[in-house]
Amino acid sequence: MIVHESDPITLVGGAGLSDQLFDQALEVAPLVVAADSGADRALDHGITPRAVIGDFDSISQAARRALPETVLHQLQDQDSTDFDKCLRSVTAPLILGVGFCGDRLDHQMAACNALVRYPAQRCVLLGETDLMFLCPPAIHLPLTAGCRVSLFPMGAVEGLSDGLQWPIRGLNFSPDGQIGTSNAATGPVHLTFTAPKMLVMLPLDRLDSVVAALADSAARWPDGTNPR
Q: For the whole model, what pTM was predicted?
């Protein structure tokens, strides 16, 4: 484990990222770890990351010169993305990922894959308008009526819901079958799922609610455990 923190971490990648979104993440998680060229983005924002993790195929030479060797952790593995490398190398109660959504569709899909590959991590990916996280075994979200709630399965999974306009009981979700985009809350939402396979997508302005919900000690899948 390269980084072990008892406080939340902002993990910054190299995709397009507004100063406003970066600052929003830092308000919740002021400690910064960078994925490869995310180091350039952190330095541009006046921040020296605690660690830089990746294969270093995109970090600039200027950033490498500006950072102490002790924070540079080059992992040569070419079978995983830099986001994947970071998730398996960082321990923290919460990770907010910025700079991983929006630029390239293949990178964004790979980030979705990594969220499911490391179900024990509490990680929320932030885009400019939406956020996304892997749903834990059970979660209670204090949403308001009309709030958009999208569910996208990354594998076969079933679940129960309370507080959704279109309940999910009895549905067999899968990436090539039933999905759950553009549902809506009727008030506070409670979700349970049978496996760590369901991504939840909400408007970005629900970040505080998500952070509070994920802080629940029960809101975590056991490391490496699939209850199915």
A: 0.93
